[in-house]
Design goal:
two-stranded antiparallel sheet; 11 strands; 43% helix; 16% strand
């Protein structure tokens, strides 16, 4: 996914779009060769959804989230998910105050703008499930009291491929609450050369300020962008195309589980955000095609026989896009 210059907004490019384009450039000072993942995170922020980042260790998943937060001047907290992590370590808990002889609530790291849930599939399902209310309702309930999370709030969860040792597959209910699943591949040769060149000249991934990453946009810019995305239109034919793509996942022979209506609305919302990033105030079928795989790949599951035949989820989704009629 790469954006194109904005040419179709009345009166010229939207100021918030220019701000987000600066964010993309700023993140590039720290992260090399992951433009699609940067765009995916921006789409999630615009659509108010969560992102699952999958890739082998060392492909800059954590650095990407930290850099984006710094460029947007948003608060971020990181939680390293481990087998002994407890739900209260994420959401917060009641703590006894000996001076007042009362229990007070101590906020957990979930009270932030971007929660970096690092290696989320290394913790048992009970702790994974502690994020469900935060992800769906944007609140945390402790001792019968609901506490609202900051706005904006998204979870950017990283995970290693499920076949790695010591990992727990995320439950379907939680997977379905991620707006996008982005796969971060190993860099191309020229990108890896640029990575080590930067390290050879003193780049320190733990010092973003030293790398020149500075705030170039704010929460106000993001709020203006979200309002603009909400005004992006979609013709009835495009809406029908989205539905047809999703319904095709429910009848695909290789899938034992198709996409629910939540996935249908997610595909619409991400397509609108992508259209706006491309400089349009309306959705076209190409927008839907661009977001189908990252938006739906984690909402389906393969049949065992398809897995044994070496078929991948992405292959099936691309096949669906090739067969579902595109509106003219």
């Amino acid at each position: 996914m790469t954006t194109t210059p904005s040419t179709e907004f009345p009166g010229g490019p939207h100021p918030a779009l220019e701000a987000l384009n600066r964010v993309r450039a700023e993140v590039g000072k720290a992260v090399v060769g992951q433009d699609s993942a940067v765009t995916g995170l921006l789409i999630a922020l615009l659509a108010g959804g969560h992102v699952l980042l999958e890739g082998v260790p060392g492909v800059a998943k954590t650095l990407l989230v930290r850099s984006l937060s710094a460029a947007l001047s948003l608060d971020t907290k990181r939680v390293q998910f481990t087998p002994d992590l407890m739900p209260g370590d994420i959401t917060g808990s009641l703590v006894y105050d000996a001076h007042t002889s009362e229990f007070t609530f101590r906020e957990g790291p979930v009270f932030t703008n971007i929660l970096l849930a690092d290696e989320i599939n290394r913790t048992p399902p009970k702790t994974q499930a502690s994020l469900l209310e935060a992800m769906e309702e944007r609140q945390v309930s402790v001792d019968g009291i609901s506490r609202a999370l900051p706005d904006p709030f998204i979870v950017a969860a990283t995970q290693n491929p499920v076949e790695y040792e010591g990992t727990y597959a995320l439950p379907e209910a939680q997977l379905d609450r991620f707006l996008l699943k982005l796969t971060m591949q190993l860099p191309e040769r020229h990108d890896e050369i640029e990575i080590i060149r930067r390290h050879a000249t003193g780049f320190n991934p733990r010092d973003l300020a030293g790398a020149g990453v500075t705030p170039v946009a704010s929460a106000d810019d993001l709020a203006a962008a979200k309002a603009a995305v909400a005004a992006v239109g979609a013709a009835p034919e495009v809406l029908a195309y989205i539905v047809d793509v999703v319904r095709a996942t429910r009848t695909a022979p290789s899938f034992q589980l198709g996409v629910s209506p939540r996935g249908t609305t997610a595909l619409l919302n991400t397509s609108r955000a992508w259209a706006w990033l491309c400089g349009r105030n309306y959705v076209i079928p190409d927008d839907v095609k661009a977001l189908t795989v990252p938006c739906l790949r984690h909402r389906v599951s393969l049949r065992a026989e398809a897995q044994m035949d070496g078929v991948s989820v992405d292959d099936v989704l691309y096949g669906i896009l090739a067969t579902v009629p595109v509106p003219r």
